[in-house]
Amino acid sequence: MAKITESKLFTALDGFEIELPSWGFSDTGTRFGKFFQPAAASTLDEKLEDAGLCHKLTGACPSVATHTLWDFDPDMNPRAVARLAKKYGIKLGAMNPNVFQDQIYKLGSLGNPDPKAQQQAIDHMIDSVNIGRAVGSKYLSLWFADGTNYPGQDNLVRRKRDFQKGLKKVHDKMPRSMTMLVEYKPFEPGFYHTDIADWGMAYVLAKHAGPRAKVLVDTGHHLQGTNVEHIVGFLLDENMLGGFHFNDRKYADDDLTMGSIDPYAVFRCFNMVGQFEFDTGKTPKIGYMVDQSHNLKSKVEAMITTVDMAQRQFLKTQLVDRRALARAQKRGDVTGAENLLIDAYETDVRKTLARWRRARGLPADPLAAYRKGGYEQKAKKERTAARKARGVVQSSGGYA
Q1: Does the predicted TM-score (pTM) go above 0.90?
Q2: How far apart are the first and last CA of the chain?
């Protein structure tokens, strides 16, 4: 294991940031319905307040991703939203258009056989670009539910070509400071085929879109047994890895909290980034983001737990002795090479992380600090009353 000073570890932690999703603080559901939490956020103000608190406690999540359709009313001033975020000590991050919820998208968005549906999707994505431009967002994050359920339902090659044309139109409207992230998913909701089914398809579409388009890797969006870190390494070497959506899963796209099932997988993904930096001497521009659905866990507690997990696994990868690893690999020492990773992964970094937090004026245990502070109990009471005053009727149907 590498002998690295605590000062260098602290510097590495200072540079590590992970973005939280606004929708992770609200009542989202399963495919079958929602289970409500009294303290869950039901307004953008409440989402930003929760995100700000997570950053205040962990020091690692200064930005929040927003969903254009869910978070921005048509008459809302984006700069006013940015000022509201600043009030809570954070900034707005990735813009996430929604081109899967409206009825017009029944047969898809950019892949839809109806040009009107395609144009609506393009217009909405460009609206998201303009909002992002106004608030200084660096990313336009795109996930598409496009696909078909039956053989012969549509022309798959025509759909591919329309995706290429549509993404290029959106890309060309982006400011030079913005990166387009193209996400992929092997199945659901299209059960026969999905238009962007894997990282290779996302790669090709990003290349067609333009030089500021990259691939986004959602750690839950893979078939069982997929070597995700291999994909990460491949995309890094191609300069095509734009970002991550972190979550965990046991079976499919379960959206569980990061590392709750396989923390070693998180470590292995971060390790690929660390290896790339060692091999090239370059720090890749990668957006680390969270994308989870907390149906059972407290919304804020789940986010704090995820950020803590991310910090731990990132910190462990700093302990890998890269020079020793290169020597072991060169001489074909399979066991020795593997043990260098295992030694770093099994190192308990919690005390180091606690010392970094105290040195930065943060609570050594952010989850304990949150529970002790009584924020959730206060939010339950105030938000329940606020929903009642607004006449909000909670519906168990739908995802968001």
Answers
A1: yes
A2: 45
CA dist., res. 161 & res. 182, Å (int):
15
Q: Residue 19's beta-bridge partner residues?
A: 289
Residue 398 has pLDDT above 60, yes or no: no
pLDDT tier at 32, thresholds 50, 70, 90: confident
Q: How far apart are CA 68 and CA 81, in angstroms?
A: 12
Q: Going by C-beta distance under 8 Å and a sequence separation of 6 or more, which residues neighbour residue 103?
A: none
Q: Which two tokens stand for residue 298?
A: 């407290």
**Would you say residue 147 has pLDDT above 90?**
yes
Strands (E) in 295-381, as ranges, are none
User: What is the Cα–Cα distance from 350 to 29, expressed in whole angstroms?
Assistant: 33
**Residues near 362 by Cβ (< 8 Å), separated by ≥ 6?**
57, 58, 59
How far is 390 from 400, CA to CA, in rounded Å? 19
CA distances from 316 to 125, 336, 367 (A): 38, 18, 20
Token look-up 């020091």 returns: 59
Give, for 147, the enclosing helix (H) or strand (E).
strand 147-148
Q: What does the CA dihedral 10, 11, 12, 15 come to, rounded to 10 degrees? A: 120
* Phi/psi of residue 287, nearest 5 degrees: -90, 110
**HSE (side-chain half, CA atoms, 13 Å) at 102:** 15
The amino acid at residue 121 is A
Residue 395 pLDDT exceeds 80? no
